[in-house]
Amino acid sequence: MKWQIDTHHDQTLLRDYLRNVCGFSKRTLAQVKYHGGKILVNNEPKTVRYVVAKGDIIQVIFPPEIRSAYMKPEPIPLSIVYEDDDVLVINKQPHIATIPSIHHPNHTIANGVLHHYDQQKLPYTVHVVTRLDRDTSGLLLIAKHRYAHAILFHSQQKGEVKRTYNAVVEGIVKPSSGTIHAPINRDPNSILKRMVAEDGQEAITHYCVLNYWSGHSLVELNLETGRTHQIRVHLSDKGYPLAGDTLYGGKKQVINRQALHCIKLEFVHPITNKRMVFTIGLHDDIKQIEQNLKNNG
């Protein structure tokens, strides 16, 4: 990555330029400095205490990315919505984990992304920005290298990475729009479940009902925070569990997984600073719910 110093940043500490202008976090700079990367000014190595001058060419060379030994490339089908040198947007299918875990050590989206990189001879590992649960479908954002991930992570912390979801829930949601503001913590009786709890982390979900079908509601949701299982926990706590979400009280009468789909993704591109907006239709099994409910109603 290269930048040229302009008049505005003349006589700035290199550390401050990299942090405040280029978006490097302390952690990312430490990885560069101590794990085999380089910081060059006019092709000469410099420390972050160097004072830059107008016209200087700053170059950051990242250390080689090391893939975890347990994460292997696999030819997993990927529905790629968008790709450039820095980011990857995928329309994730249901019934597949985003990254490996104890319960799902392989056959994940991450394994498929590594295979995709190998096909293009890209020496990257996987940097997931917007992770989706195994049975949630829809738009998923991945940074292709450390620099893009550092910027997007910082942007996400500021609430600038936005996701919109559609969900089919059991019951007639009333009122038809509103905000659920309820803290979330781990359920002490489960290794997987979360629950609304006074001592939990702040969690805010905005919702709006789009349609009603035979005792079910199609709801659009926007997250102001990004807690684990936030939508599933908030709606279940209000008495409207997601259809198919047996972990949080839903039934599998109309679908065999939680009926949750990320339909819209918005973020500022980490390199071009361009506003990126992607939308995708509902997955086929959620589309089918409407027809099934009408037939059975």
TrEMBL record:
Keywords: Isomerase, RNA-binding. GO terms for molecular function: isomerase activity. It catalyses: a uridine in RNA = a pseudouridine in RNA. CDD domains: PseudoU_synth_RluA_like (cd02869). Residues 86-236 form the Pseudouridine synthase RsuA/RluA-like domain. Pfam families: PseudoU_synth_2. Coiled coil: none annotated. It comes from the Bacteria. SUPFAM superfamilies: Pseudouridine synthase. Belongs to the pseudouridine synthase RluA family. This is Pseudouridine synthase. It comes from Gracilibacillus marinus.
